[in-house]
Amino acid sequence: MQRGPSGPAAGFRTRRVGYGLSMSLERDHVRRERLIFEQDADAIRDVVPFVCECGDTDCIEGMEMTVDDYMSAHSAPDLFTVKPGHVFPEAETVVESHDSFWLAEKDGG
Hints:
Layout: E1 16-17, E2 21-22, H1 23-45, E3 47-51, E4 62-66, H2 67-73, E5 79-82, E6 92-97, E7 102-106
Antiparallel strand pairs: 1-2, 3-4, 5-7, 6-7
């Protein structure tokens, strides 16, 4: 005579969904994704180092900003971030200034 599972799994059936994942695996996946998202959201608010994007090809000076600031600064193709004071006024305009970086725009496109 063949017997079913015993112990904690006795009488528990999983429904298969999606790519063959059981519901319990699906819930675990959702929990992990939520945790990763929350960690990424925290990381976006953390200040991280970036390299100055000024026109001096030899410049490798660092500046710090959040990932969110960096992404916002690059929302348009003519915007870029520089270390304070690293602009060429004849070709660039400072759009925003922050303590550790400036948002600059190329003049005339």
